[in-house]
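ok so for the tutorial part 2 we go from a plain amino acid sequence to predicted structure tokens. step 1 is just haveing the sequence, like this:
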Amino acid sequence: MNPYNCSDPGRSFVGYEAERQEVLRGFVNGKSYALLGGRRCGKTSLLMRLREDLQQRGLKPFQALPRFLDIQSLVPRSPFDFFSRIHTLVTEGLGTPAWESPPPRQAYQEFLNRLDELHPLMERAHGARWLVVLLIDELDAAPKHLPDSECFENLRNLLMESRFKPYFRVVASGCSEMGKLIGTGSPLNNLAKLYTRVLTVEESRELAGKGFLEGLRQDTEEELLRHTGRHAYALQGLLEKLHEAPRPPHRRESRPSPRCSPAITAMTSRCGTPMWATLAAPATRRWQARPRRASPGSSFASAWRGASLSPTASSP
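step 2 — the prediction. this is what the tokens look like for a chain of 316 residues:
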């Protein structure tokens, strides 16, 4: 089974250990976060890993209840749509009736009243220090469907001023439009900023090791990192194709396989050289890649467009 699948968020996740620890400590201290990064930069995968961290490690002294909310699947068009969905996530496993009809008054106030009714049930089910952690993916997709900023102002109140602020934390991800929600004077400028980034060399090696247990040749590894700029999506995409190629090389092999799968050949048609031959070329004819550095705000596509491949003679 191929351990790599760059279209499946969370698959073969590596890295961000320091950032994840920082977020967990922040939750204990009452902080919530905005996770910023470009498309295909790992935001959804990081949210999923935070959910796993909370489930596996816990969050003493709290009973953490991680709840994942994908805005692109919900597409809220009113405060009722938004807060009724959160209500559903809060009551998960309690067996309480769903909140199905919009209230005659403000939806957020009705949400707080419903929380008053739920609080004894939550304490019986999860203890006095229950804590719902909302992991909201693509929050910046919501404004274009909502009539105004009411939802975001209400969310700020929930986290900062309401009687239930001790029971809720948020990590909300987004791209460029997220700045309008968290900038100075914006409704959610209370969220601490957390950025996606490229992988470190050690994290990149860890990712490669998930599919190539005996490791890669040093020159192959160097070319992989050079081609991808250590961008997690780009690196996993290439490793996915390499894993499907016949006879992938490892350190004990003296020569790379001359064969290449059609998918890899198509992926590397711009340089006209099979992938393994490109990445594991002998020292006398090495391909030098000059990719644009995959910045936290860039996408895989822009990083790949910035790459240029040219054959050069290696220095003696």
